[in-house]
Amino acid sequence: MKIVLGLAVLYGLALIWVAVNQRKLMYHPEERLYTPHQNETFPHESVELHTKDGLALKAAYKAPENGKPVVIYFHGNTGIVADAMHKLIPLASAGYGVLMPEYRGFNGNAGAPSERGLIQDAEAALRFVREKTPDAPVVYYGMSMGTGVANALAEKFPPAALVLECGFTSMTAAAQNRYPFLPVKLLIKDTYNSEKRIASLTAPLLILHGEKDKTVPVSHAYKMLTAAKSGNKTIKIYSDGHHIDLYDFGASTAVLNWLNELFFENAFKK
Question: 2-264, what's its fold?
C-alpha cells in the first residue's frame, strides 16, 4: 500500500510539473535544428514584422519575380529560420517570393511563444506580404508545429494554397502519442486543433509526410487529408522519411512541381 501511495504521489507531482512547464516542453526557442544543409541559403533581406500586440519580429524576405506567388513558411517548434532556409532555395530560385517569419521568443525576438501569440505572428507576416505585394497569390507552408500555425491562419484568412509537412491533427493528439501515460487533454493549453480548422479549407492542399515519422505518426496526414474540404488535394508519403528529413527524399522537387502545376498549368514543371 505504501508503494502504491508513493507512486500515486509521484505521478501527481509529475502532472503538476508538466502542467506548469508544458510550454517549455512544447517550444524550444534556444535550440538549433542541425542538418547537413544548415548553412545553405538564398538571397534575401532581413525585415521586421509588427504584431498587433506590439512586438517587432525578425523575418527573412525575398520578393517574388514576374507576379509569382509568395510562400510564407512557418517552421517547427525547434530551430530558427536559418535552419530551414535550404528547403526554400528551389522556390526562391524559381522566382517565388518567400517570407520566413521568426516566432516571438525565438532567435532573440521579444515575447514568449504560445498558440495565441504565434497566430498573431502569422497574421503579422500575412499583413507584411499584403502590403509588399497586394496582388500576389499567397501560399502558406507549415512544418510540424508550423502546420498548426498555418492551419490557424488559413481558417481566418484563406490562402491561395496550403502545404503541410509532417503535420498533426492537433497538438493534443501529437502530445498524447509522445506522452501516453499522461492525461494530455486535461493539461494542454495550446491545442492547435488543425483537424477542426482545416475543415473549412477549400484552397488546394499538399500534404507531405514520412512513413517512419515517430514524432507525428503518418496516420495524422491521412486524417488531415480527409478532413479538408479542398477539391484539389494531394498527399505524398515518403516510405523512408522521418520527421525532419523529407528533403533528403525529394520533397523540394515535389513542392516546386506541385506549385508550378497549380499556378502555371505545367509551364514550368520539370
Answer: Rossmann fold (3.40.50)
